[in-house]
Design goal:
The protein is an alpha/beta fold. The protein folds into four domains: 7-84 and 411-459, no CATH class; 98-191 and 341-400, FAD/NAD(P)-binding domain (3-Layer(bba) Sandwich); 195-339, FAD/NAD(P)-binding domain, CATH 3.50.50; 473-509, no CATH class. 29% of the residues lie in helices and 17% in strands. It contains 16 helices and 17 strands. It has helices at 7-15, 24-36, 42-48, 68-82, 105-116, 133-136, 145-156, 174-180, 209-217, 237-248, 268-276, 381-400, 435-438, 452-459, 473-477, 505-509; strands at 98-101, 121-125, 161-164, 183-186, 192-193, 206-208, 229-233, 252-257, 280-283, 285-293, 296-310, 316-329, 332-335, 339-340, 369-371, 483-484, 494-495. The strands form five sheets. It has a five-stranded parallel sheet with strand order 3-2-1-4-15, covered by helices on one side.
Length: 518
């Protein structure tokens, strides 16, 4: 589950502004409120989300998906520039109190949606600042801290109380929260590194990926050794982020990944950027041991891999290639193979062999306790945001006794559209900072987004799948005067069913699949 944003709606607000005679700033403001109805993080997600929504964009059948994340970033930046606030759904104050554990994307999303519905919400965060892995796990060159802070502040402005430096399980127990609050949401994330399982990895110059990023963001000076060589083991975003930070610190960096680039789970453009910055990636390679000098690792012993049969994930399982051992000299090793939650204080929620399990509403096995984000399953930020919102909606239904709304927007497949109506218009690539400029400041932002004119042009590539955009074809091709063209733009066409002969010409000629003959 992603964050559930109404993508077509916020994109077409911008795309059709000129046609409807709306000032572009007015269209941007409406797009902001459409977006933030489901997610409070447009400027954040526009930078860090790998945009899985673009894989479902029908435009890719012609010339490439619409740059949705570039548009959401622009909408988010407009909201910050104009000081736009999140809209409350009611001015009524509700009596029930809710506690949220963890100020990451899932917890803050849940808190935001509850506050919009009038509930008093308190967020308990173990770290000294809110943000979770958005703050401590994503480098400033991808997500400037001031952008994250500003979007979190909007949530706080709804009346959400954020208590930092309070660790549930140490300073207050989960049982205490259940007694003091009417519902609890657990969004503690997964901020513990998983060990390699190789002898000797307890050396002081071996770091886990999440620990390295956390300590770096806290301003700690890390001893990466006297030689500029750091090996990062893993192929996810944490591995890429750790590698790119080390490169900015002047290190020569090698990434070991046991599969090929096709299976690498990190965001594809981030992999390309890492390689452009001079980071070497050893594919089909894995560590098998370490050579030490005293207690410090001086070399990592590795072996070549080859892909065998598919594993449970559907990816081909890497197996060692006999007689292919090799060694890499290192001054530090960062193990970024995976991460897991710290369940201290939450042991009662675990359901072996898994982590915390939730039902379709996000509720755990404890009544009134909900959860979402990486503590449930490792996934991208939009998934955590969506799970937080979904839990907030379930908590609201529980308190108010309202039924669940199962109506959702249906997608329109490309085969239901007339793709020949649309002219080819290549996707606009965003600008990026030159490689040499990136190394002048470890936090200088690399991806620069698109300017306003480019965003408007990119939004117009949207084919308005499933929604009328006034192309007139139904009206032009109807020979029976069954289609009534409205006098005002933006108003839907109407139908005189008494004139309709059921020829289906309107549906056949509708480019976007809006008209359906049943």
């Amino acid at each position: 589950m992603a964050s559930g944003n109404a993508i077509r709606d916020f994109v077409t607000q911008i795309a059709q502004a000129e046609r409807l005679g709306r000032p572009i700033d007015e269209a941007y403001e409406e797009a902001f409120h459409i977006y933030t109805n489901t997610s409070p993080f447009p400027a954040v997600c526009g930078r860090v989300c790998p945009a899985p929504c673009e894989t479902g964009c029908n435009r890719k059948e012609i010339d490439g998906a619409v740059g949705i994340n570039k548009i959401e970033r622009s909408i988010g930046e407009f909201g910050l520039e104009k000081g736009l606030k999140l809209k409350r759904l009611t001015e009524e104050k509700q009596p029930e109190k809710v506690a949220v554990v963890g100020a990451g994307p899932g917890g803050l999303s849940c808190a935001c949606q509850l506050a919009r519905r009038g509930y008093p919400v308190t967020v308990f965060e173990a770290q000294d600042k809110p943000g979770g892995m958005l703050l401590w796990g994503i480098p400033g060159y991808r997500l400037p801290e001031k952008v994250l802070e500003a979007e979190i502040q909007r949530i706080a402005d709804l009346g959400v109380e954020i208590k930092c430096g309070v660790k549930v399980g140490r300073d207050i127990s989960l049982d205490d929260l259940r007694q003091q609050y009417n519902a609890v949401f657990i969004g503690i994330g997964a901020q513990q590194g998983v060990r390699l399982g190789v002898d000797g990895e307890d050396a002081p110059n071996i770091f886990s990926g999440v620990d390295f990023l956390n300590r770096f963001h806290h301003g700690e000076k890390l001893d990466l050794g006297d030689k500029v060589a750091v090996v990062v083991v893993g192929g996810g975003d944490t591995a890429i982020d750790a590698a790119r930070i080390c490169r900015r610190l002047g290190c020569e960096v090698t990434i070991l990944y046991r599969r090929t680039i096709k299976e690498m789970p990190a965001i594809a453009p981030e992999i390309e950027e890492a390689q452009a910055e001079g980071i070497k990636i050893e594919f089909l390679a894995a560590p098998i041991g370490f050579r030490k000098d005293g207690n410090r690792v001086r070399a990592m012993q590795c072996i070549r891999m080859e892909l065998g049969e598919p594993d449970a994930s559907g990816r081909r399982r890497p197996v060692p290639k006999a007689g292919s051992e090799f060694e890499i000299e290192v001054s530090a090793v960062i193990s970024a193979i995976s991460q897991q939650p710290d369940f201290s204080g939450f042991e009662s929620l675990i359901q072996p062999p898994n982590w915390i399990q939730v039902d379709e509403d996000g509720m755990t096995k404890l009544d009134g306790v909900y959860s979402g984000g990486d503590v449930v399953n490792l996934d991208i930020v939009t998934t955590a945001i969506g799970q937080g919102r979904k839990a907030a909606e379930a908590i609201d239904r529980r308190f108010r006794g309202t039924p669940k709304d199962n109506n959702g927007a249906l997608g329109i497949e490309a085969k239901k559209m007339r793709l020949d109506h649309y002219q080819r218009e290549d996707r606009i690539a965003a600008m990026t900072l030159g490689v040499e400029e990136r190394f002048q400041d470890v936090n200088v932002e690399v991806n620069l987004g698109l300017d306003r004119d480019s965003i408007i042009k990119e939004s117009r590539r949207c084919m308005s799948c499933g929604y009328c955009f006034d192309c007139e074809k139904c009206w032009l091709f109807c020979q029976d005067s069954a289609v009534v063209k409205p006098m005002q733009k933006g108003v839907l066409y109407s139908f005189k069913m008494e004139n309709c002969t059921g020829c289906k010409k309107c549906a056949e000629e509708c480019p976007c699949g809006f008209i359906d003959m049943i």
